[in-house]
Amino acid sequence: MYPNHWKENLTKAVTSLKESEIIESIFSEFLEITYKLDWKGACHESTSAIHILLNEAGITNTWKLGEVFTNGCLFDHSWIEINNKVFDIAITKTLIKKAINAPVINGIDIGKNVVHNIEYGIDSGQDLSDQTQMVMGLDLSDYLSKSPIDKTYGTWAVILDIGKRKLNIDLDIDLLIKKYKGKFYTKA
Q1: DSSP string, 158-181
Q2: How many domains is the chain partitioned into structurally?
Q3: Are 46 and 34 in contact (CB under 8 A)?
């Protein structure tokens, strides 16, 4: 489980934002899921699901994919940006233990409640991993449909559940799949 103060700091980090309750609800839920499922190395998957939920709630955001440098580690990663500020739950469960950090919400490291010191979107000149290149080659619909998290709907099942349970919106999976066909990440 994660430290209790993370939730409190997450709430503080978003209070000044328009639609703060929705943003808090989505990121809090993904923090829970990340720890409940021990969702390691799932940055592309979780971030793309967060991106869609924010979009469907009417919150402008960008799903970024690129390189990150922290704690002496360089790795491929995905995160969300809202108003050019980083939102990153998946940084808590990277595959590289040394790179693990507390979540970053609205540019704030919610473990320490300070501005984060992670370098997002750097260009090292190195090739991206095979996994990242695969994600880059798939649109959101195909990528989320191929997830093993649900045999029938992939990550779409998580999106539908959170949409209904946390945001009180009924999402139609067939319409979502069509809507996000041809939509890709934004390269950092």
Answers
A1: HHHHHHHHTT-----HHHHHHHTT
A2: 1
A3: yes
What are the structure tokens assigned to 187, written together? 């390269």
* Alpha carbons 155 and 136: distance in angstroms, whole number: 17
Helical packing angle, 20-36 and 5-14, nearest 10°? 150
Using alpha carbons, select from 45, 48, 68, 90 the residue that is nearest to residue 184.
48
pLDDT of res. 186: 87
pLDDT range class, residue 182, cuts 50, 70, 90: very high
Residue 147 lies in a domain: yes
43 in any annotated domain:
yes
Provide CB contacts within 8 A for 162, sequence distance 6+: 26, 29, 49, 53
Its pTM stands at 0.96
Residue pLDDT, tens place only, 157-181: 999 999 999 999 999 999 999 999 9
Q: What is the domain range of residue 43?
A: 5-180
Q: How many CB atoms lie within 10 A of CB 117?
A: 11
- Asked whether residue 186 is assigned to any structural domain, the reply reads no
